[in-house]
Write a structure and sequence with these properties.
By secondary structure, the protein is of the alpha/beta class. It contains 13 helices and 15 strands. Helix 12 links the parallel strand 13 and strand 14. About 50% of the residues are buried. Bound molecules: guanosine-5'-diphosphate. The site of guanosine-5'-diphosphate (GDP) has 25 residues, from helix 1. Guanosine-5'-diphosphate binds next to helix 1.
Length: about 300
């Protein structure tokens, strides 16, 4: 059973963890957003890839939801003293090693895909973690505080400015990787994870040919909006400020024509008919992943066909 999962760094990463446990080694491919990537202290930082790496390696700090559990900040303190910029991006010491290693591998000629594969293997991860693109792609947000690079908005401005528009810098030249497209073509099940539809899944689907590849796979998507709210992060506020409906139906509308089925949380079962009206098969499942058992149960239910058909 080969599964390809499209993911950002939080909801998608948790579902990846469930799939990785319930599938056989090598059966899971996680196609990860790269448009949040940035350069810090001369290093290549890929926040969503790192969150997936740390989650699948069992290293993630579960209290913050990012970074390495138990990490220290000695290097960051010294960088600050030395006058480094953008030290609001909280890089831990172990986390710094990840960015150093990635930067080194890329400087030695590896693609982001190859560098990620080498690091995943070194951490004992058997799932394939596939950057959606090896090319430069950067989410720029038009906000009330002006146009901000994604990390300036997300970390620097603590997601406070309202987002009025999204621009993907580099999109014209960026291509999906052959590995990501092959994973979609070969998968028995393609899932769009419960990740931010605007800034995590949006940039993956925007890559030339990606939308068509996902549509051809008969994919299903899991809603990141439950009972009208994001479980973490600014997805709900972003949908609102972009003029979209802040419900699972609003997310389903974005994915209409791309996925075959749409998974609503059990709390939103009453919205199933609205999802069906968009031409998507509604499925209702418990999608809130608080524990490992929740992650495994959701992954298992998706593999088994996506839960109760509720029309
Ligand atoms: P980011 O890259 O860190 O922003 O993370 P993602 O884009 O992968 O995930 C953010 C989205 O995941 C938010 O919209 C959350 O509501 C959603 N999310 C987080 N945890 C869960 C969960 O357990 N279940 C569901 N259904 N959605 C979740």
């Amino acid at each position: 059973m080969r599964v390809a999962l499209l993911a950002g760094g939080t909801g998608g990463a948790k579902l990846a963890d469930g799939f990785a446990r319930v599938l056989a080694p090598g059966e899971l491919s996680v196609i990860v957003n790269v448009a949040d990537d940035t350069e810090l202290h001369g290093l290549r930082v890929s926040p969503d890839i790192d969150s997936v790496l740390y989650t699948l390696a069992g290293l993630l700090d579960r209290t913050t939801g990012w970074g390495v559990a138990g990490d220290t900040r000695t290097a960051l303190g010294m960088l600050e003293r030395l006058g480094a910029e953008r030290t609001w991006f909280q890089i831990g010491d172990a986390d710094l090693a990840t960015h150093v290693r990635r930067t080194q591998l890329i400087r030695d000629g590896a693609s982001l895909t190859d560098a990620t594969a080498a690091m995943a293997a070194a951490l004992g991860i058997t799932a394939r973690i596939l950057p959606a693109s090896d090319d430069r792609l950067r989410t720029m947000l038009q906000t009330d505080a002006g146009e901000l690079d994604f990390q300036d908005y997300f970390v620097g401005h603590r997601q406070e400015p309202e987002v009025r528009g999204v621009r993907l810098d580099g999109l014209d030249a960026a291509r999906p990787t052959p590995a990501a497209l092959a994973a979609l073509a070969e998968a028995d099940l393609v899932v769009i994870g419960p990740s931010n539809p605007v800034v995590s899944i949006g940039p993956i689907l925007a890559l030339s040919g990606m939308r068509e590849a996902v549509a051809a796979s008969g994919a299903m998507a899991v809603s990141p909006i439950v009972a009208g709210r994001a479980l973490k992060g600014p997805a709900d506020r972003m949908l609102a400020s972009l003029g979209e409906e802040v419900t699972a139906v609003g997310v389903a509308r974005r994915y209409a024509g791309i996925v075959r089925a749409f998974v609503l949380d059990a709390a939103d079962a009453a919205l199933a008919s609205e999802v069906a009206a968009l031409g998507l098969e509604p499925r209702v499942l418990p999608t809130v992943m608080r524990s490992d058992a929740d992650r495994d149960a959701l992954a298992t239910a998706l593999i088994q066909g996506g839960g109760i058909l509720n029309r």
